[in-house]
Specification:
The structure is a homodimer. The first copy, chain A, is an alpha+beta fold. Chain A folds into two domains: 158 residues, Nucleoside Triphosphate Pyrophosphohydrolase (Alpha-Beta Complex); 69 residues, Arc Repressor Mutant, subunit A (Orthogonal Bundle). Chain A contains five helices and ten strands. In chain A, strands 1, 2, 3, 4, 5, 6 and 7 form a seven-stranded mixed sheet that branches. The longest helix of chain A has 18 residues. The radius of gyration of chain A is 20 Å and the shape is elongated. The N and C termini of chain A lie far apart (48 Å). At the A-B interface, strand 1, strand 5 and helix 3 of A face strand 1, strand 5 and helix 3 of B. The first copy, chain A, binds a DNA duplex through helix 5.
Chain lengths: 249, 249
DNA sequence: CCAAAAGTGTTGATGCTACACCCATGA
DNA sequence: TCATGGGTGTAGCATCAACACTTTTGG
């Protein structure tokens, strides 16, 4: 009967972490942040982590993930999908992690379970500004991500697997591209993410046959070669029901 | 350096819930339990729920799920796979749920996030005894599951989707069957779970071609018709890497 | 005119779907 | 002998993989 009370107390045992993928035309990128409060603390810690935070007691988990992205990166209103829960007992036990936790968390020894989310964005829509909320946010090449803080490499691994699966079965590649794009960008995207060298002609034929692409009257500009025709994504009803039958790529 | 301290304090904000699927030869079954302490409490509550419990502070989540199944059902050493985290703010707010929580939980109003797991078992290995730890445990027909407590219908929905996906891409059907089984049981299993009527000859040809089945010299006994040859599952290295290319059924 | 990427079809092999009858057994 | 499910093959169709040359543009 009673509406949810807003307490704004943090829940010290549950956090969210977000894997945001972008694509710059040739490489897959991941959004990473330097740890919060880094400038104010007298520690030498340049560890990168996924954007994340503890949740509030009365906050929906998905909302928490959205909030984190908005606060840390200015990215709003993103389609986020859950990866899963990560709760290893030792996930916060690296030395550097403990030092940071001791400094910033009210209950640094608390056992924390985190829920991972992932999202795909067109990287050009979210240029990271080198000041303000995005001071410590960077796009990192997926293949050049080193050791992250906490268990965030595990979360990232789970995310890339999910991304590859989705790429096969759902029309999601477009989310990583601008509104209009040449087909070869999509082709490169698939090859990059899937670590493969698909046959170009077969790929183009198949991707067009899905009906999710519509040609425009626009062409690439400023390229030192024949400009390619730009295509756009056609929103169609897509049900995951036939997910398994439907090979997308 | 220091080994994990065992505190045995419960974590009142995180729980696990398990979806255990079984197959009886014609129907898909789910393991459900009546709520804990039902007999000792003066309430009229025959609500069924998934087996689950709060976790301990220093307990791995997966271990917690195993413990729950062992405690409630005697099922040990099961391969459990995570479904995901379920954390809706209203997931514990049905009237009957609140009454039960008030009676058995130290902090009944605590917001709880649950991690769902699922498992496949050969139903004959785990005959539920009508006494002892399994007093309130039943196998329920998947299609006859009514309204469960909490948000357990949501968890179950997520589980069945996962099961259907796995059935397409991985050799898991065998886990629901005895060591030796006639091919038609496997065929029925696929049709039941996928809600389909696969072509029988095509199914048999394809399933044999996967190389995961080996014929034995044994035949069905006690059936009022020609006894079918029994097959057994061949353990082979199976990597999910080619998950997406590989159509299993 | 050169470099660079765009654009474009066919063929052979493989895999898929659809389909029906006889057989072996227990009762 | 009857009822029940067991066991088996093919043909036509669709899909897939493999493969290379010409065109257009900018510089």
């Amino acid at each position: 009967m009673e509406a949810t009370k807003k307490t704004n107390n943090i829940n010290p045992t549950v956090s969210v972490d977000c894997v945001v993928f972008g694509f710059d035309g040739s490489d897959l990128k991941v959004l990473l942040v330097q740890r919060d409060l880094r400038d104010n603390l007298d520690i030498d810690d340049d560890t990168l982590v996924l954007p994340g935070d503890l949740i509030f007691e009365d906050e929906d988990i998905l909302d928490a993930a959205s909030r984190v992205l908005l606060d840390l990166t200015g990215i709003d209103n993103l389609f986020l999908e859950q990866i899963g829960a990560f709760g290893n007992l030792d996930r916060l036990s690296k030395d550097k992690d403990k030092i940071w936790l001791d400094l910033v968390r009210p209950t640094p020894d608390s056992r924390v379970i985190t829920i991972g989310y992932f999202a795909l964005v067109n990287i050009k829509n979210y240029t990271i500004k080198p000041a303000g909320f995005a001071k410590h946010v960077i796009w990192k090449d997926f293949n050049e991500v080193g050791e992250l803080g906490f268990d965030h490499n595990d979360i990232l691994s789970a995310a890339i697997i999910k991304l590859r699966n989705k790429l096969y079965h759902e029309p999601v590649g477009f989310k990583l591209l601008p509104n209009q794009f040449p087909l070869n960008h999509l082709y490169t995207l698939y090859n990059t993410i899937l670590n493969s060298k698909l046959d170009r002609r077969n790929f183009l034929r198949r991707i067009l046959k899905t009906g999710f692409l519509k040609e425009t009257d626009n062409f690439q500009e400023g390229v030192p070669h024949k400009p390619a025709r730009l295509y756009t994504f056609v929103e169609k009803k897509f049900t995951n029901d036939n997910n398994q039958k439907f090979k997308f790529y």
